[in-house]
Amino acid sequence: MDIIRAVEAEQLKDNAENFRVGDTVKVHFKIIEGKNERIQIYEGLVIAINNTGINRTVTVRKISYGVGVERIFPIHSPKIQLIEVTRRGKVRRAKLYYIRDRVGKAAKVKELIRKKTVTKA
């Protein structure tokens, strides 16, 4: 068992923990088309984060031409280059599956506004 955990620990990414459910993220992932390799950006709302460790996945939902599209990304995959948070969301649930049934403004998540901490010198 320790050998498996050691191999998994090598493959874990450090920057995968800086977002939560309800955040709007840009996922930069690598696409290979024949000999060409390019990075495509998928921007949407994080509606679920599943599992832990190397098996951790994130479900991102976006509206494309009026149709809801969801994609599941394995966070620690070598094809994922960067997960960038564009907007923090204020939610009270761990899974936002109810967003699938909402349309228009009802499908939005309020933005989380954090106060800046002031340090005294």
From TrEMBL:
PROSITE patterns: RIBOSOMAL_L19. Keywords: Ribonucleoprotein, Ribosomal protein. The keyword Transferase does not apply. One of its GO terms (cellular component) is cytosolic large ribosomal subunit. It holds the Pfam family Ribosomal_L19. GO terms for molecular function: structural constituent of ribosome. InterPro entries: Ribosomal_bL19, Ribosomal_bL19_CS, Ribosomal_bL19_sf, Translation_prot_SH3-like_sf. One of its GO terms (biological process) is translation. PANTHER family: LARGE RIBOSOMAL SUBUNIT PROTEIN BL19M, RIBOSOMAL PROTEIN L19. This protein is located at the 30S-50S ribosomal subunit interface and may play a role in the structure and function of the aminoacyl-tRNA binding site. Belongs to the bacterial ribosomal protein bL19 family. This is Large ribosomal subunit protein bL19. The gene is rplS.
